[in-house]
């Protein structure tokens, strides 16, 4: 086989059929712009068998759209049923890779079309893939991990080609992976195509309630004594050091009043506040006086003054994500209150 130069080539590959003659099956490789020649025959025609109509193969190959399966005839004999002059060729266009698809999905912040995001549960095994959408011959897929520094970033070659198999992934393995795809034409043109995959390693949230009374941090526990005039601040926190990007936090006031926050990446917002049943006007007023704070990621904080223990006896903090949920309960008890 000859050595070819350029960015686009044609490959005509042998396809087995029952045909007689030396030209029944052929293998040829042509540059785009060259002419397909079938041995000594110069008067021939090739028609696509993959379409409903007789789309003819051009003598001079002009684009990657010329690829496909063709049936070729000696024009002088193509109408003669007694002479088996037809033969088949399968045409592939050899060209560089221009785009790839990979594991993952569009990231929540939709920051880049070249960046996919993927959340994997800690301790599980998974296979990441990265495939070229075009390019011939078959390209090579290589995997790197991208690390940032003061000078920019550095891609470290993982020495893996094809699929990337990860076994028993660690919670600390949240990272930015890069698959680089190309064939020898990409290499010659230094045009290797890459796809970035942000891998988040997640686990079920670990929720915790933090309580401030009149600005002072209270000892953690399941019970707290309060008085009506106490200024209380309750925080429902997700304690995971590197939480997954999507978490829902719910404050449940004695199964009567519900407050919900949604967190995605580094943003959070209150999405719901509602009563689960009919309550007295007095209690409704008390619940409506709750001030909501959502300043910090994965921290749902409420400020509540003049708590009426006839309306609420406990509060629950619930944090949930795709891997499960955790609930902590704080019982509210009447303290030694001055009239």
How are the secondary structure elements laid out?
Layout: E1 9-13, E2 28-31, E3 44-48, E4 68-74, E5 87-94, E6 100-102, E7 105-106, E8 115-121, E9 126-128, E10 130-132, E11 140-149, E12 152-161, E13 164-166, E14 175-182, H1 184-189, E15 193-202, E16 207-213, E17 216-217, E18 223-226, E19 231-238, E20 246-253, E21 257-264, E22 267-275, H2 281-288, E23 291-293, E24 299-305, E25 314-321, E26 324-334
Task: Give a short summary of the structure.
With 339 residues, this protein is mostly beta strands. The chain is built from 2 helices and 26 strands.
How would you describe this structure to a colleague?
This protein has 339 residues and is mainly beta. The chain contains two helices and 26 strands. The strands form six sheets. A six-stranded mixed beta sheet has the order 7-8-15-14-11-12. A six-stranded mixed beta sheet has the order 18-26-25-20-21-22, with no helix packed on it. A five-stranded antiparallel beta sheet has the order 2-1-5-4-3, with no helix packed on it. β21 and β22 form a beta hairpin. The longest helix is centred in the C-terminal third of the chain and has 8 residues. The N and C termini lie far apart (100 Å). The N terminus is likely disordered.
